[in-house]
Design a protein that fits this description.
With about 300 residues, the chain is mainly α. It is built from 14 helices and four strands. It has two domains: about 100 residues, Orthogonal Bundle (DNA polymerase, domain 1), CATH 1.10.150.130; about 180 residues, Orthogonal Bundle (hpI Integrase, Chain A). α6 packs antiparallel against α8. The relative contact order is 0.09.
Length: about 300
């Protein structure tokens, strides 16, 4: 029976890729988290680590090590530490499933994190943000189309960057995407967003497949479609730029636009189950982070219609 940690990790990642069909981003992250654990155990044991080296003591020591690692703002955040634990727990479940003796995955607890208020933009803030790109420039027109499409569909940024222009039907204003865990769903495009995406596409003279292309840089003419595809990191940066221009009090990200889309629907009267489907959430419990919106609407209904308030 294989017990070498490097080999088991490789088998686990292959299983995720082939059997579970997880995204490239998830694979990359899981590899990073598990490689860091292996490096830590290698330094500690001075030999190639074994599955038996993962026990309560080594994990406690590893988590203490993680908590002291520098993050973007001081020490590594609890939520980031939690990602390591989730990856390790998934790996141990794989080992149990394959009859490999190991530490019980249920003995691992994900670190508790402080509740964070849900970040979203109200209608006025959203309009201010959407009005920032300069439409007379190729970059501005592209960025306007990107932000309108994010707000219109509630797409994750990872879903947006992999869109190809022949897969987006602007006439019917709906198209299919494959989200987390290979889950398929249909997203719908507002008329305004469709108009700006169409305007952006008509301004292009290239034959590249990606819906959104990088503009400028060292080389703007290459043969590889994927090298021309705009990255998630680039979209995060451009959005941060427009947030600063709009002087918004919220440090909005592409995911903030996703939250804003859900909030906009719920405030207009959409039900939570429909929003769950539109966002591609596997469980309704994930969508329930928006209950503060529905709670506010219920209060309005109570105030307006209850006889005791008249």
């Amino acid at each position: 029976m294989v017990t070498d940690l490097n080999t088991l990790t490789r088998h686990f990642l292959e299983y995720l890729e082939i059997e579970r069909n997880v995204s490239k981003l998830t694979l990359r992250n899981y590899r990073l988290y598990l490689d860091r654990l292996i490096d830590y155990l290698t330094d500690d044991k001075k030999r190639s680590p074994d599955i038996s080296d993962i026990d309560k003591d080594s994990i406690r020591s590893f988590r203490l090590y993680l908590s002291r690692l520098p993050g973007t703002a001081g020490e590594m955040k609890s939520i980031t530490q939690g990602y390591y634990v989730i990856a390790l727990r998934s790996f141990l479940k794989y080992c149990v499933k394959n009859d490999i003796e190991c530490m019980a995955p249920e003995k691992l607890d994900v670190p508790k994190v402080r509740d964070h208020s849900l970040k979203f933009l109200d209608s006025d803030q959203m309009e201010r943000l959407l009005n920032q790109p300069l439409l007379s420039t190729p970059v501005g027109l592209r960025d306007k189309a990107i932000m309108e499409l994010l707000f219109s569909t509630g797409l994750r940024v990872s879903e947006l960057v992999y869109l190809d222009r022949d897969k987006v039907d602007l006439k019917s204003r709906e198209f299919g995407v494959i989200g987390k865990g290979g889950k398929q769903r249909v997203v719908f495009v507002t008329k305004r967003a469709a108009d700006f995406v169409d305007r952006y596409l008509k301004s292009r003279t290239d034959k590249y497949k990606p819906l959104f292309l990088r503009i400028g840089g060292k080389s703007t003419i290459v043969d590889d479609d994927e090298k021309m595809r705009l990255t998630a990191r680039s979209i995060q940066r451009l959005l941060k730029h427009y947030v600063r221009l709009a002087k918004l009090p919220v440090d909005a990200t592409p995911h903030t636009l996703r939250h804003s889309m859900a909030t906009d629907l719920l405030r207009a009267g959409a039900d939570l189950r429909s929003v769950q489907e539109l966002l591609g959430h596997k469980n309704i419990s994930t969508t329930q982070i928006y209950t503060h919106i529905t709670d506010a609407r219920l209060r309005e209904v109570h105030e307006k219609f209850h006889s005791g308030n008249k």
